[in-house]
UniProtKB/TrEMBL annotation:
Its EC number is 3.5.4.33. This is Nucleoside deaminase. Keywords: Hydrolase. Residues 14-146 form the CMP/dCMP-type deaminase domain.
Length: 170
């Protein structure tokens, strides 16, 4: 997974502001109806815009954050899982899940308006999720124990993947 950010087109300050404002407006509208106060916009290299909002409570889906929803909508519409050349604009700093999704989608850049501290002030304190990755195993266990179990057949899916001549690399 490599992206040459040195050759990526950097959006103008005006474009960044415009797209962040779109994300903020979508978030505010969503918060006033039936969703969380988060919005996101993916803008492709050719200028297509895909706007999404947080649907966690509306869809009963804890992964339906605005950023993930925008990435999903973009990938589905374009028929690809590789968004190289695209940029994500989001009303708030992405949580670790959303940032990881941005990396998997191969986005060129991520811009956000409010930061994690603004979100905490608004009732969305994700600090424990950011800290999870730097915590000791004992500290992580207090949140959710994650255990490696070496099952004999554990490599079988990867062997099947390697043997599949028609696999789609990602």
């Amino acid at each position: 997974m490599t992206t040459d950010s040195a050759t990526a087109k950097t959006p103008s300050d005006a474009d960044v502001q415009k797209h962040l404002q779109t994300a903020i407006e979508a978030a505010a509208q969503n918060a006033s109806v039936d969703g969380g106060p988060f919005g996101a916009v993916v803008v492709t290299a050719d200028g297509q815009e895909f706007v999404a909002v947080n649907r966690v409570t509306a869809d009963h889906d804890p992964t339906a954050h605005a950023e993930v929803s925008a990435i999903r909508a973009t990938c589905k519409a374009l028929g690809t899982h590789d968004l190289t050349g695209a940029v994500l604009y989001t009303s708030c700093e992405p949580c670790p899940m959303c940032l990881s999704s941005s990396l998997w989608a191969r986005l060129d850049a991520v811009y956000f308006a409010a930061d994690r501290y603004d979100a905490a002030d608004g009732g969305f304190d994700d600090a424990v999720f950011y800290e999870f990755f730097t915590a000791t195993p004992e500290e992580r266990d207090k949140l959710v124990p994650v255990r490696h179990v070496a099952v004999d057949s554990r490599k079988a899916p990867f062997e099947s993947w390697a043997a599949n001549a028609e696999r789609a690399e990602y």
